Amino acid sequence: MVDSSQYARFISFEGTEGAGKSSLIVALADYLRARGEAVTVTREPGGTPLAESIRALLLSAGAQEAITPQTELLLMFAARAQHVAQVILPALERGDWVLCDRFTDSSLAYQGAGRGVDAVFIQQLIAQVPIVPNLTFWLDLPVELGMQRAQKRSHLDRFEQEKTEFFERVRQQYARLAKQYSDRIKPVDATQTPEQVLSQVLDYINL
Ligand code: Z5A
Q1: Model-level pTM?
Q2: What is the model's pLDDT at position 91?
Q3: For domain 4-205, which CATH number applies: 3.40.718.10, 3.10.20.90, 3.40.50.720, 3.40.50.300?
Q4: Which residue's alpha carbon is at the smallest distance from atom 36 of ligand 1?
Q5: Ligand 1 center to residue 201 CA distance, Å?
Protein backbone atom coordinates (compact mmCIF):
# COMPACT_ATOMS: atom_id res chain seq x y z
CA MET A 1 0.00 0.00 0.00
CA VAL A 2 1.30 3.44 -0.95
CA ASP A 3 1.49 5.93 1.93
CA SER A 4 -1.07 8.41 0.63
CA SER A 5 -0.55 10.83 3.51
CA GLN A 6 2.59 12.00 1.73
CA TYR A 7 0.42 13.20 -1.18
CA ALA A 8 -2.90 14.22 0.43
CA ARG A 9 -4.13 15.34 -2.97
CA PHE A 10 -6.01 12.35 -4.27
CA ILE A 11 -9.72 13.19 -4.37
CA SER A 12 -12.47 10.97 -5.74
CA PHE A 13 -16.04 11.97 -6.61
CA GLU A 14 -18.98 9.63 -6.25
CA GLY A 15 -22.72 9.65 -6.75
CA THR A 16 -25.57 8.23 -8.77
CA GLU A 17 -26.00 9.28 -12.38
CA GLY A 18 -26.41 12.94 -13.20
CA ALA A 19 -25.25 14.00 -9.73
CA GLY A 20 -22.92 16.61 -11.22
CA LYS A 21 -19.53 14.96 -10.63
CA SER A 22 -18.06 15.83 -14.04
CA SER A 23 -19.26 19.45 -13.85
CA LEU A 24 -17.83 19.84 -10.34
CA ILE A 25 -14.48 18.32 -11.33
CA VAL A 26 -14.13 20.77 -14.24
CA ALA A 27 -14.94 23.72 -11.95
CA LEU A 28 -12.58 22.54 -9.19
CA ALA A 29 -9.75 21.86 -11.66
CA ASP A 30 -10.18 25.38 -13.12
CA TYR A 31 -10.10 26.82 -9.62
CA LEU A 32 -6.93 24.94 -8.66
CA ARG A 33 -5.15 25.71 -11.96
CA ALA A 34 -5.96 29.41 -11.56
CA ARG A 35 -4.02 29.20 -8.29
CA GLY A 36 -1.03 27.72 -10.11
CA GLU A 37 -1.63 24.12 -9.03
CA ALA A 38 -0.95 21.15 -11.32
CA VAL A 39 -4.06 19.02 -11.71
CA THR A 40 -4.70 15.64 -13.29
CA VAL A 41 -8.36 15.02 -14.10
CA THR A 42 -9.26 11.43 -14.72
CA ARG A 43 -12.11 8.96 -14.47
CA GLU A 44 -13.11 5.37 -13.81
CA PRO A 45 -13.60 3.11 -15.52
CA GLY A 46 -11.06 4.64 -17.89
CA GLY A 47 -8.15 7.04 -17.78
CA THR A 48 -5.71 5.09 -20.02
CA PRO A 49 -6.21 3.75 -23.57
CA LEU A 50 -6.60 0.18 -22.30
CA ALA A 51 -8.89 1.17 -19.44
CA GLU A 52 -10.98 3.32 -21.83
CA SER A 53 -11.40 0.24 -24.07
CA ILE A 54 -12.66 -1.68 -21.04
CA ARG A 55 -15.01 1.24 -20.28
CA ALA A 56 -16.44 1.03 -23.80
CA LEU A 57 -17.14 -2.70 -23.28
CA LEU A 58 -18.76 -2.04 -19.89
CA LEU A 59 -20.98 0.84 -20.99
CA SER A 60 -22.04 -0.52 -24.35
CA ALA A 61 -25.81 -0.78 -24.23
CA GLY A 62 -25.83 -3.00 -27.30
CA ALA A 63 -23.62 -5.75 -25.88
CA GLN A 64 -24.27 -9.00 -27.75
CA GLU A 65 -24.17 -11.06 -24.58
CA ALA A 66 -25.26 -10.10 -21.07
CA ILE A 67 -22.31 -9.22 -18.83
CA THR A 68 -22.49 -11.14 -15.54
CA PRO A 69 -22.11 -9.12 -12.30
CA GLN A 70 -18.80 -10.92 -11.53
CA THR A 71 -17.45 -10.15 -15.00
CA GLU A 72 -18.51 -6.54 -14.62
CA LEU A 73 -16.75 -6.29 -11.26
CA LEU A 74 -13.52 -7.88 -12.49
CA LEU A 75 -13.43 -5.68 -15.58
CA MET A 76 -13.82 -2.61 -13.31
CA PHE A 77 -10.82 -3.79 -11.29
CA ALA A 78 -8.77 -4.66 -14.38
CA ALA A 79 -9.31 -1.13 -15.68
CA ARG A 80 -8.50 0.23 -12.20
CA ALA A 81 -5.20 -1.68 -11.92
CA GLN A 82 -4.04 -0.15 -15.20
CA HIS A 83 -5.31 3.32 -14.30
CA VAL A 84 -3.70 3.41 -10.85
CA ALA A 85 -0.32 2.24 -12.17
CA GLN A 86 -0.24 4.34 -15.33
CA VAL A 87 -1.97 7.56 -14.31
CA ILE A 88 -2.82 8.05 -10.63
CA LEU A 89 0.44 7.08 -8.93
CA PRO A 90 2.69 8.88 -11.47
CA ALA A 91 0.56 12.04 -11.18
CA LEU A 92 0.74 11.98 -7.39
CA GLU A 93 4.48 11.41 -7.54
CA ARG A 94 4.79 14.53 -9.77
CA GLY A 95 2.92 16.49 -7.10
CA ASP A 96 -0.33 16.93 -9.04
CA TRP A 97 -3.74 17.06 -7.50
CA VAL A 98 -5.64 14.04 -8.83
CA LEU A 99 -9.37 14.54 -9.31
CA CYS A 100 -10.89 11.17 -10.11
CA ASP A 101 -14.48 10.75 -11.32
CA ARG A 102 -15.43 7.56 -9.40
CA PHE A 103 -13.11 5.05 -7.65
CA THR A 104 -13.48 1.96 -5.46
CA ASP A 105 -16.64 3.18 -3.66
CA SER A 106 -18.44 2.88 -7.02
CA SER A 107 -17.66 -0.85 -7.03
CA LEU A 108 -19.20 -1.29 -3.58
CA ALA A 109 -22.22 0.79 -4.57
CA TYR A 110 -22.92 -0.48 -8.11
CA GLN A 111 -21.59 -4.05 -8.18
CA GLY A 112 -22.18 -4.65 -4.44
CA ALA A 113 -25.52 -3.02 -3.62
CA GLY A 114 -26.70 -2.60 -7.20
CA ARG A 115 -25.89 -6.04 -8.64
CA GLY A 116 -25.65 -8.04 -5.43
CA VAL A 117 -22.02 -9.17 -5.67
CA ASP A 118 -20.60 -10.32 -2.31
CA ALA A 119 -19.21 -7.28 -0.47
CA VAL A 120 -16.46 -9.36 1.18
CA PHE A 121 -15.14 -10.32 -2.25
CA ILE A 122 -15.21 -6.67 -3.37
CA GLN A 123 -13.34 -5.63 -0.21
CA GLN A 124 -10.70 -8.26 -0.96
CA LEU A 125 -10.19 -6.71 -4.39
CA ILE A 126 -10.11 -3.21 -2.90
CA ALA A 127 -7.40 -4.37 -0.49
CA GLN A 128 -5.20 -5.06 -3.53
CA VAL A 129 -5.53 -1.47 -4.80
CA PRO A 130 -2.39 0.29 -3.59
CA ILE A 131 -3.94 3.66 -2.81
CA VAL A 132 -6.99 5.08 -1.03
CA PRO A 133 -8.34 8.57 -1.81
CA ASN A 134 -7.49 11.18 0.81
CA LEU A 135 -10.94 12.63 0.39
CA THR A 136 -14.11 11.51 -1.39
CA PHE A 137 -17.04 13.76 -2.20
CA TRP A 138 -20.37 11.94 -2.42
CA LEU A 139 -22.72 14.10 -4.45
CA ASP A 140 -26.09 13.08 -3.11
CA LEU A 141 -29.10 13.64 -5.34
CA PRO A 142 -32.58 12.08 -5.37
CA VAL A 143 -32.50 9.36 -8.01
CA GLU A 144 -35.42 10.79 -10.02
CA LEU A 145 -33.69 14.15 -10.32
CA GLY A 146 -30.47 12.53 -11.54
CA MET A 147 -32.39 10.51 -14.11
CA GLN A 148 -34.09 13.66 -15.38
CA ARG A 149 -30.71 15.32 -15.79
CA ALA A 150 -29.24 12.26 -17.56
CA GLN A 151 -32.26 11.82 -19.84
CA LYS A 152 -31.50 15.16 -21.45
CA ARG A 153 -28.61 13.34 -23.17
CA SER A 154 -29.06 11.75 -26.58
CA HIS A 155 -28.55 8.13 -25.57
CA LEU A 156 -28.43 6.15 -22.33
CA ASP A 157 -25.57 3.72 -21.63
CA ARG A 158 -25.97 0.22 -20.14
CA PHE A 159 -25.98 1.49 -16.54
CA GLU A 160 -28.28 4.41 -17.27
CA GLN A 161 -30.90 1.98 -18.60
CA GLU A 162 -31.27 0.41 -15.13
CA LYS A 163 -34.50 0.94 -13.19
CA THR A 164 -35.04 3.39 -10.33
CA GLU A 165 -34.77 0.61 -7.68
CA PHE A 166 -31.22 -0.19 -8.82
CA PHE A 167 -30.13 3.42 -8.29
CA GLU A 168 -31.97 3.60 -4.96
CA ARG A 169 -29.89 0.65 -3.73
CA VAL A 170 -26.75 2.38 -5.00
CA ARG A 171 -27.69 5.63 -3.24
CA GLN A 172 -28.43 3.83 0.04
CA GLN A 173 -25.05 2.13 -0.16
CA TYR A 174 -23.31 5.48 -0.61
CA ALA A 175 -25.14 6.70 2.52
CA ARG A 176 -23.87 3.65 4.45
CA LEU A 177 -20.31 4.12 3.18
CA ALA A 178 -20.38 7.84 4.09
CA LYS A 179 -21.28 6.84 7.67
CA GLN A 180 -18.73 4.04 7.83
CA TYR A 181 -15.86 6.11 6.40
CA SER A 182 -16.95 9.52 7.66
CA ASP A 183 -13.36 10.78 7.93
CA ARG A 184 -12.86 10.29 4.21
CA ILE A 185 -16.28 10.47 2.53
CA LYS A 186 -17.99 13.87 2.68
CA PRO A 187 -21.64 14.10 1.59
CA VAL A 188 -22.52 17.08 -0.57
CA ASP A 189 -26.10 18.16 -1.31
CA ALA A 190 -26.12 17.94 -5.11
CA THR A 191 -29.51 19.66 -5.44
CA GLN A 192 -27.68 22.95 -4.82
CA THR A 193 -26.52 25.17 -7.67
CA PRO A 194 -23.12 24.29 -9.21
CA GLU A 195 -21.63 27.36 -7.50
CA GLN A 196 -22.91 26.25 -4.07
CA VAL A 197 -21.61 22.71 -4.64
CA LEU A 198 -18.13 24.02 -5.52
CA SER A 199 -18.13 26.34 -2.52
CA GLN A 200 -19.01 23.47 -0.14
CA VAL A 201 -16.22 21.35 -1.61
CA LEU A 202 -13.68 24.18 -1.31
CA ASP A 203 -14.62 24.56 2.35
CA TYR A 204 -13.81 20.89 2.91
CA ILE A 205 -10.42 21.06 1.20
CA ASN A 206 -9.63 24.30 2.98
CA LEU A 207 -8.94 26.49 -0.05
N1 Z5A B 1 -19.18 2.10 -12.43
C2 Z5A B 1 -19.40 0.93 -11.71
O3 Z5A B 1 -20.46 0.32 -11.84
N4 Z5A B 1 -18.43 0.46 -10.89
C5 Z5A B 1 -17.23 1.08 -10.75
O6 Z5A B 1 -16.37 0.61 -10.00
C7 Z5A B 1 -17.03 2.29 -11.48
C8 Z5A B 1 -18.02 2.77 -12.30
C9 Z5A B 1 -15.73 3.02 -11.33
C10 Z5A B 1 -19.99 5.21 -15.76
O11 Z5A B 1 -19.67 6.23 -14.84
C12 Z5A B 1 -20.63 4.06 -15.06
O13 Z5A B 1 -19.66 3.21 -14.47
C14 Z5A B 1 -21.52 4.49 -13.95
C15 Z5A B 1 -21.22 3.53 -12.79
C16 Z5A B 1 -20.24 2.56 -13.36
N17 Z5A B 1 -22.85 4.39 -14.39
N18 Z5A B 1 -23.81 5.00 -13.95
N19 Z5A B 1 -24.76 5.50 -13.65
P20 Z5A B 1 -19.86 7.76 -15.20
O21 Z5A B 1 -19.40 8.51 -14.00
O22 Z5A B 1 -19.22 8.08 -16.49
O23 Z5A B 1 -21.45 7.88 -15.42
P24 Z5A B 1 -22.47 8.76 -14.74
O25 Z5A B 1 -22.45 8.77 -13.28
O26 Z5A B 1 -23.73 8.31 -15.39
O27 Z5A B 1 -22.02 10.21 -15.21
P28 Z5A B 1 -22.97 11.39 -15.45
O29 Z5A B 1 -24.38 11.00 -15.66
O30 Z5A B 1 -22.31 12.19 -16.51
O31 Z5A B 1 -23.01 12.12 -14.08
P32 Z5A B 1 -22.18 13.29 -13.47
O33 Z5A B 1 -20.81 13.37 -14.06
O34 Z5A B 1 -22.29 13.09 -12.03
O35 Z5A B 1 -23.01 14.58 -13.87
P36 Z5A B 1 -22.65 15.82 -14.89
O37 Z5A B 1 -22.30 15.25 -16.27
O38 Z5A B 1 -21.71 16.75 -14.26
O39 Z5A B 1 -24.07 16.50 -14.91
C40 Z5A B 1 -25.18 15.87 -15.51
C41 Z5A B 1 -26.14 16.98 -16.04
O42 Z5A B 1 -26.61 17.75 -14.94
C43 Z5A B 1 -25.45 17.98 -16.99
O44 Z5A B 1 -26.38 18.36 -17.95
C45 Z5A B 1 -25.08 19.14 -16.07
O46 Z5A B 1 -25.03 20.36 -16.76
C47 Z5A B 1 -26.22 19.11 -15.07
N48 Z5A B 1 -25.80 19.56 -13.73
C49 Z5A B 1 -24.62 19.33 -13.12
N50 Z5A B 1 -24.59 19.89 -11.89
C51 Z5A B 1 -25.80 20.49 -11.73
C52 Z5A B 1 -26.40 21.24 -10.66
N53 Z5A B 1 -25.75 21.48 -9.52
N54 Z5A B 1 -27.66 21.67 -10.83
C55 Z5A B 1 -28.34 21.43 -11.98
N56 Z5A B 1 -27.83 20.74 -13.03
C57 Z5A B 1 -26.57 20.28 -12.90
Answers
A1: 0.96
A2: 97
A3: 3.40.50.300
A4: 20
A5: 17
